[in-house]
Amino acid sequence: MSLTGYKELTWHYRFGHRRNVLLFRPNYWNQTPVNRSGTMIHIWMHLYYVAGDVAYDWSPDYNELNTLQQLVNADSFSEFVKQVCGN
Asked: Has this prediction a pTM greater than 0.85?
C-alpha cells in the first residue's frame, strides 16, 4: 500500500496486475468535478504509465519543468487534460 498525493486524497493497492484506487472522503469528494477528474488522471498516470511526482501544478517548480520532466510527471498529464477540456 502506498500513499499518493500531497493532500492524501487517494490510496492505491497493488495486486499483481490489478490495481484498485480507494478515494478518501471528504478530501476527494469536496473537490470540484474537474479537480476530481484531475486527481484520477494523476493517479492513473502513476499506475499505468511511468509517471512520478516531479512537481505539482501548485508548486513553484512546476512551470520550470523541461519537456522530459513533463513527460514523466503525473500532474503534467492531469493539467494537460484539464486545459484541453477547457478548465
From this structure: no
